[in-house]
Amino acid sequence: MLVKRWVLVGAMGLFTALVASCGSGSSGSTNAPVRPPATPAVTGKGEPNGTPTQATIGAGGGQLTSSDGMLTVIVPPGALTADTPIGIQPITNLAPGSLGASYRLTPEGQVFGSPAQLVFAFTDAELAGSALAALRVAYQDDKGQWRSLKSVTRDAAAHKLSVTTTHFSDWAQTTGLKLTPPSKSIQAGESVDLRLEICLYKDYEESSDELSDLVLTCEQSRESTLWAVNGVAGGDGESGTVSEIAPGDAKYVSPDIAPTRNRVAVSADVPQTDGSKILVVSNITVGGHPSWVGTSRTDTTLTDMNGVTKIVADASVRWTWDETDQAYHAIGALAIDYNLTTASCTTTAHFQGAIAGQDGTLVVFDSGSGQQQYSGTGYTNATVMGTSTCNATHTPEPALAFSGPTAWWTAPLPPANVSADGRTIAGSVVSPPGQMPSTDAQWSFTVE
Predict the structure, then answer these.
(1) Cis-peptide, bond into residue 398, ω within 30° of zero
(2) 145 has which bridge partners?
(3) How far apart are the C-alpha atoms of 278 and 266, rounded to whole Å?
């Protein structure tokens, strides 16, 4: 007898933030609020957050790369006098203005005869809302304070930062400037509140370290900033306007009709102590929600008294915005392969059909900190023709049609963060060991 068991679990995601261009300009307020002095940042130690790597490096030198490929340690010849196990442990990044992962380099406290080189990689998504010139590399000292190296080599083409050091500790990439949200999608006529946050560097007199600056806690900018929209100071009627509400705070107001040049670049031109300026940009999409296309696959296995049930569902989906529901709905195609194996029979079934608009909902929302999040679900009621093949002691069952119940191709998800650049979303979910049913899900979507 064909056993009906639909236990598909899946996962999907979406992102609407977008990263693009640049500009410069000016705006308003000049009276900074009275605030207490910024204080040195002291944090706890980061927790292990990835697979460690290790290599033995001796007097001849060598190199080691972290398991995520984002940090390479290069030890020159002569820096070590004996074979030494060098390790990289990814840890949570607690540094102010954190950018990506942090890394614990071991042996902690290891001192080199000549400087080792640390080469950090960064992505465009991590750079969103900041700028290359604002990126730094910092380490945590024995007081829990963070120290930013004064000498940093920045390679824009390779997306890398390099520093040299003669000691090992906890190291991290940081940024001194953050504009939030780094990107956002709004309707025509709506507005976005922007905040410029600065993580200052200060070489205190009591510090004897001539190579590094003490990192201060990140705080709202205290200085008036030059704001622009698509390079026009204060913006205009075509692209929208931006005005400074207070030092570090600005409001962008979009036009009543979506601009021709869409993804609008709202920028802050931030003066530096050396007389230079750093431009940071928030990219705003006005008057529309982009469609997203991609695939989701769920592979579910359940073993119980009825045998082993295996269901694979492949969904090809295009998510489109529904103004009435204020959510995305799915259209596309779904293929389901069903297999039930018992001691005596194997039952197979296949379903192929359309995903209709009412078969899925995806919600994308702002978490309140500039990071967008999503949650969603997708399902299809399937009518399936199944056939059984049995061994010699059993008579095969005739073809049998049955409906559902509901086949899920993406499960209800708790809020999850989406990528910072807003161009793609990809991920996977695997059931914890021992969980029933066992599910493996993958999904990938790209802005259309």
Answers:
(1) no
(2) 42
(3) 14
The mean pLDDT value of the chain amounts to 80
Going by DSSP bridges, is the β-strand pair 416-417/264-271 parallel, antiparallel, or unpaired? unpaired
What's the average model confidence in pLDDT over 75-91?
Answer: 95
* Token pair 């900033």: residue: 225
Q: By three-state DSSP, how is residue 301 classified?
A: strand
- C-beta separation of 98 from 91 below 8 A: no
pLDDT tens column, 131-157: 999 999 999 999 999 999 989 999 999
> How far is it, in rounded angstroms, from Cα 328 to Cα 60?
58
Helices and strands, counts by H and E, the chain: 1, 32
Kind plus residue range of the DSSP H or E element containing 211: none
What pTM was computed for the model? Answer: 0.59
Q: Where are the beta strands (DSSP E) in 14-159?
A: 53-57, 62-65, 71-75, 84-91, 98-106, 111-121, 135-140, 146-149, 153-155
Residues 225, 231 contacting (CB under 8 angstroms): no
Phi, psi of 132, rounded to the nearest 5 degrees? -55, -40
E strands present in 133-233: 135-140, 146-149, 153-155, 160-167, 170-175, 177-180, 183-186, 191-202, 212-220, 226-229, 232-233
The Cα 139–Cα 248 span in angstroms is: 27
